[in-house]
């Protein structure tokens, strides 16, 4: 405990600028979908640079696997890995009827989201705070019968790129903070993901979109100031995953399951394929080994695992919704069922250890240190940090070092606030170690 306490001081002086005990602080969590950690390296981003000077910047952050939008956003809201929160895919599906719902339709399937893990809006409201959400994945659902007090879900076929809308949405949530006295709001922008998919992460179009994001970051901070919020509002800006270029052309050996010798779709009763680099299969009774053996090793860039043998670091195994066979490809490759059905130039959904899958992270506000760059950390840790800033007790989460849980720290509610710091400190500790390691990898 003593060691933890001294680490606690270390973290407090590292990332959190001042104690957050006097007046309750507010938190705005912003996600720019698919903003890869290094997107500011080849574009002038004066507003993101200024935010780093005025606050904390992480080298990069590591999302949970599967690196796609709804699952990783629900991790931001809950601090749980995907196998633990259960929103395992963008698409709701039913293996009995073979029905699947799109990303947008799945937003409205309550039982897909309300699955035992509470997002921070509900936890905050249960503890007397007020929360809101605009367009953030998971906003449309209710949780144990509750919804965020102020919320807005985007309409069907929404134009996620419109900069004027971005400004209006920003002013709307700042109005919620000022006029409704909300304590926490999550705000979602659907770019640069769309542009990254369509044109690829190395395209001039993506660089233009990063400029638009940068202008909007400036707008968000200006709007906070206009609404008189800067003294109490902490702004965290991050993303759900990165983006990588898809290899195209006749020389690329495509991965098409129907062409793999020994593999038959007639051995499979349900499949979730044609969704970028990842897929899941439910073999028919007695066909698991046949399907597995046919696919395993069939292509040098295809990874095939039985659910229970998944690599530990992916933490994508222990959930009933995950199907018995999990497939994913190496960066650059996508997974096709019968033939290619989408032709994106950029994709995500790959192993979360791949550098191209890492998002960015910035934070500014009264609680944060100024002009500080920290090493990488996992996005599960953002949830306990936000709970700490809001002064609320977090739900069970995966933030921090698991060893602290294992060492008997669970259940000491009297020191819960302190524990939060301990967890965060643990993260900062591992930052430093990993930072050294990662510098060699670049
Ligand atoms: Zn996304």
UniProtKB/TrEMBL annotation:
Keywords: Membrane, Signal, Transmembrane, Transmembrane helix. InterPro entries: Alkaline_phosphatase_core_sf, Phosphodiest/P_Trfase. Residues 1-17 form the signal peptide. The keyword Ion transport does not apply. The chain crosses the membrane at residues 409-432. The keyword Membrane applies. It comes from the Eukaryota. It holds the Pfam family Phosphodiest. This is Ectonucleotide pyrophosphatase/phosphodiesterase 7. It comes from Fundulus heteroclitus (Killifish).
